[in-house]
Amino acid sequence: MGIEPVRRINSRGGCAPHLSLQFDSHLFSIDTSRSPKACLQPDAYLITHAHSDHFGKSAMLSERAIASVETARALEIRYDREYKGRTFRVGESIMVGDVSVQTHPTGHTIGSAAFSWETEAGARVLVTGDVKDYSALPRCDYLVAEANYGDPYDPSCIFDDDLAGFFEALDSGASFGAYAFGKAQRAVALMRAMGYQDEIGMDAQSLVLTRERMKDAAGPLTEVNGGGTNVVTPWNLPRVRCKSKYFLTGRKDTSYPTIRLSDHLDFRGLMKMIEHVSPKEVLVYHPEGERASLLAHHLQQCGLETMSLDMIEKFVR
What we know:
317 residues; alpha/beta; Rossmann fold; 7 helices; 20 strands
């Protein structure tokens, strides 16, 4: 297909995060850290969203960075740095040299985006980032996809969001732990949709992100313990004066009781997404480790040509 995945060797001799794609005369880096100036430079650093495990903290300092307006601003708030790259509104296209890159919503966070483009030979490439809603993603030939809940053998990778449990906890006066960007805004949006109209207490970063990203839709917000309930980062939960506290997550390794509320597709959703975009080849790129490899193996067994990061054979410095 004329598309070659590449990994960069860092100064410590290991691999830099995630990967780049070489095609035609272009090199696009995906959710990775910046290359040192002496190293091969990509045409673009594509940043799918502002979570730390997608390395926008580093890539945002390059003029070659490309991210949505919302992602760029979230990176600035989270890391107190100026975003130096180019921005787009999700759904728009943006030119990288002579390549027209289309962007698509994924529902993972406010401003999260997938990227798609065509090679000179007409091969359609799609990079998803993390996905909650795949309905807007286009068909493709070459798919670069996530696998956060991609282990077909782990029962915890098959789930439905516990909206009833969340409503019951909210109604009982509980407070909630949620990551500052993404989950916190979703929690506030759900509370308002469920009819909760009182002030919501938030830690400083969650408060700034939620006010700026949700505007009036956030409703009345205040500092921690200043309202009827609280939505704070998990490490701020001990500060909350509330007997009943829950961590909103799909994870199990927590010291608080959890309510399943995920910003990712489960295994079933990932398989439906892949069927929806109908690729000829798949590269599972995130997260690094076992789950990506297990999903890649499962897709191979289903007859789909698939690889994971650990199978990439080309490296650059």
